[in-house]
Amino acid sequence: MPEPTDRPPQPPQRQEPPGETDEMRPEPRDEMADYVGRDLLAGRVALITGGDSGIGRAVAVAFAKEGADVAIAYLEEHEDAEHTARLVRDQGRRCELLPGDLADRERCRTVVERTVEALGGLNILVNNVATQWPVKSPDELTEDQWMRTFDVNIHSYFRVTAAALPHLGEGDCIINTGSVNGLRGNKTLIDYSATKGAVHAWTYAMAQALTERGIRVNCVAPGPVWTPLIPSTFPEKRVEHFGEQVPYQRPADPDEIAPSYVFLASNRLSSYYTGEVLAALGGQTVPGG
């Protein structure tokens, strides 16, 4: 894997939402090309929401390299999703693609049903789907945007998890994707920050509630990560300087974040971990700083 200082800076760029990986410059490292699995998830089945690109893609490929079959729920980025599926299948694992909007409560139920039907069960749920829309001031934040962000970023986590719980048993796990913005807030991502703070608190509560069932619940809360969400939601100038605020002075690539999900998914590595929010912040050791 390249050293942190080897990453080229990203030039100003803009995409239409939800964004496409192959239009990004530089393209994010999300294929886990240098990752070597150790059968840490052999025989397991994982459902990853927002699994078509970015962190979700990297997690899907890493899980496959560890021996898991993978279902990917995604919005409409079919080209990205098909590419991720090929990467998973190249590892000799099955991959089920589940397009649809998880802001819809019925869709949250059906992605779980289709995963179980296609892959024979469910052991690992990764709630990763997210949306964001920056605003210049609180006055710009509409109720429609607020509700849409909550429906995608936290309500879908609750609904997919509720549908998944009857299929999860002792030794299975749930991993949620949080954010540094849920730890300290962000004045331009007000609704997004609120949802990510809710994800963290929900992780704590669900971990306590599911200990007797032997189901672990954890969260990964990254700092800046170079994914299609960034050029498809931020203005060009902000994209150019994205990630410069952390000590590493750059965003992470998805392949630097995905191993955290492998760690939390593997009972061999993290059997005593539940209710954790693992913050990968590029050297920003005080999240509120």
UniProtKB/TrEMBL annotation:
The keyword Oxidoreductase applies. It comes from the Bacteria. Residues 1-29 are annotated as: Disordered. The keyword Oxidoreductase applies. InterPro entries: NAD(P)-bd_dom_sf, Sc_DH/Rdtase_CS, SDR_fam. GO terms for molecular function: oxidoreductase activity, acting on CH-OH group of donors. It holds the Pfam family adh_short_C2. This is NAD(P)-dependent dehydrogenase, short-chain alcohol dehydrogenase family. Keywords: Oxidoreductase.
